[in-house]
Amino acid sequence: LQGIVQAYKSGITLQGNTTSLGRWDFSGSFFFSISAITTIGYGNLSPSTVAGRIFCIFFSLFGIPLNLVLLNEIGQLMLLGVQHCARRLEEVFHWQKKASLLIKTCALVTGLLLFLLLPPLLFSDKEGWSYEEGFYYSFVTLSTIGFGDYVIGMNPDRTYPGWYKNVISLWILFGMAWLALVIKFGINFLE
Predict the structure, then answer these.
(1) What stretches of 11-162 show up as alpha helix (H) in DSSP?
(2) Residue 18 pLDDT > 50, yes or no?
(3) Residues 163-166: contacts with CB within 8 Å, 24+ apart?
(4) Residues 138-172: pLDDT tens digits?
(5) Which CATH number belongs to the domain containing residue 73 in this structure?
(6) How many domains does the chain contain in total?
(7) Which residues form the signal peptide (predicted)?
(8) Contact criterion met (CB below 8 Å) for 31 and 169
(9) Which of 152, 146, 148, 156 is nearest to 120 (CA)?
(10) What's the rounded Cα separation, in Å, for the pair 146 and 35?
């Protein structure tokens, strides 16, 4: 029993005669890096050596602030795009308030589709989760709650394409920036 516990702590998941050794390949490491610097911290994968833990501390000390800067820049670019579209509509159709409201609504709907409503379909296909489970995972991830009850690419009975974790890592970055903008608009509205 102690051998199984030690193997699990080392990143090996025992399932019959098979193991999940791909956790620290490029995709798994990239996904771990994203979950560390975004402070999601699912809890399913962690460094097991002293050197790995020390590296993770320094990586996070530099990575978290850099990620916040990156998310802020992505959010500002998204906001600039929305404002540019609103100005163009105002120029073309001579709309004042309607253009801004229309573009903000389109940005909200587009973001909802790209970051919350469509990804659960991918998770249903790749993970075998229900749509509701995929939606829950999407929100818990993008809001950085990260309970760890659902984590992509962890089912040893499934084969995942090489691009999967990398694309999800990018989805997390852009989705967090979008959700931060939505929360900022919500705060402005409430104030």
Answers:
(1) 26-37, 50-93, 97-111, 119-127, 131-142
(2) no
(3) 164/27, 164/126, 165/27, 165/28, 165/30, 165/31, 166/27, 166/30, 166/31
(4) 999 999 999 999 999 989 899 999 999 999 999 99
(5) 1.10.287.70
(6) 1
(7) none
(8) yes
(9) 152
(10) 9
Quote the CA–CA distance of 26 and 142 in Å, as a whole number: 22
What does pTM read for this prediction? 0.78
d(CA 104, CA 181): 11
Tokens of 179: 């959700």
Angle at 50 between CA 45 and CA 55, to 5 degrees: 75
Q: Of 60, 34, 38, 65, which is closest to residue 167 (Cα–Cα)?
A: 34
Q: What's the chain's length in residues?
A: 191
Quick check: 15 and 156 in contact, CB under 8 A?
yes
Q: Give the DSSP H/E element, type plus range, for residue 181.
A: helix 164-190
Q: Which domain holds residue 143?
A: 1-190
Q: Which secondary structure element, helix H or strand E, spans residue 14, and what is its range?
A: strand 14-15
